[in-house]
Here is the input.
Amino acid sequence: MFWFIASTVMAAIMATGMIFVRLRAARKPASVKKIILPPLFMSTGALMFLFPMFRVSFTQVLEAMAVGAVFSIFLIRTSKFEVREGSIYLKPSKAFIGILFGLLVLRIILKLVIGQTISFGETSGMFFLLALGMILTWRIAMLRQYIRLEKSITNTDTAKRV
Here is the structure.
């Protein structure tokens, strides 16, 4: 029970931190690097699978990644870019905070249900993969949107010069 509470508190702290990071990011122009780096940094967490207690079966990997991809839809829908002063900015969304905490509550409920049938280590591994699947899918969608907007700005600038 201690590990469940500790991991839930950590998830809440991380969600709160993400809200502040997101609000701060809206003040500065976005870039490809800023979009790509978070999932790369997070991927280092996969080192947990070096330890047998965290290993999951291939079907569990697929399930967790698929659920993460489904959860990412909410984040994708609230992540929009806008052009200001010739630069691309992430538009702040009031719904993002609610969605992030809603996903946290859903994650806690899933953890309670799943944690009763599989070990703490496997549950941890699956929820890491769920989060990675969610972040990866979300960031790929953001990257595609950013590149499209960047091309449209470039095409508009080119048309103005001609």
User: Anything to note?
Assistant: DSSP finds five helices and two strands in the chain. The mean pLDDT is 86.
